[in-house]
Amino acid sequence: MAAQVHCIGCLETGADFPSEAYGLQMRWSLERSDDWQLLEGAGEGTSQIHMSKGADPLCTFDHPLDVRLHCDALAKAAAPRIKVEVYQLDELDRLDIAGYGMVHLPLSTGTHALEIHCWRPAGSWYENLSAKFIGGYPRLVRPQLVVSAAERFGMATETTGTIYCTLNVFVVDLHGEVEEEEGVEESKE
């Protein structure tokens, strides 16, 4: 089935990121195969820097996401993915990596609450000690590894936090029929 997928939502909050951060910033991108074409909307974005207030473990991004995609063979195509990179601001106004994460875009009509679990490469004892004092946590040389589970296999990582996202997804086939959400009936007048 050829289809268009329209996603409207928000990358809302981040929680449980490293407590030494004075602020957090998130960069996101929509990773997709050649089967998908971006018809409308931005395929990437950057949030504002959320400045921490004390030991508050929750940061608010409220970054909008509004994209419309087209796919000729929805059943055969791999689902697009939302990739995030979260950066922490230190007391010297330097941005350092706080975590990478990825989640598949839902391909069913409805409202979806998503959690993007973030991680970063685990450094050696010396690298972690150095990063605490002068910054520079280990980063990925190729950020595309975030969306490739096979290439990440065996990599030592540490969990850093979670991004919470809400998306409203509409799937429409070429005949203009909206896929109905389960439990919701179409009214006929």
Features of this protein?
189 residues, mainly beta, 5-stranded antiparallel beta sheet
Major sheet summary line: 5 strands, antiparallel
Supply the number of helical segments: 2
Here the CATH topology equals: Immunoglobulin-like
Number of individual domains: 1
Strand arrangement, largest sheet? Answer: 3-6-1-10-9
Under the CATH scheme, which class?
A: Mainly Beta
User: What is the global morphology?
Assistant: globular
Describe the structure.
There is one protein chain. This protein has 189 residues and is mainly beta. It has a single domain (3-173), classed as Sandwich (Immunoglobulin-like). Helix content is 7%, strand content 50%. A five-stranded antiparallel sheet has the order 3-6-1-10-9, with no helix packed on it. Strands 2, 4, 5, 7 and 8 form a five-stranded antiparallel sheet that branches. A hairpin with a 5-residue loop joins strand 7 (81-89) and strand 8 (95-104). The relative contact order is 0.25.
Task: Summarize the SSE layout with pairings.
Layout: E1 3-15, E2 23-31, E3 36-40, E4 44-46, E5 50-51, E6 58-71, E7 81-89, E8 95-104, E9 110-121, H1 125-134, H2 149-152, E10 157-173
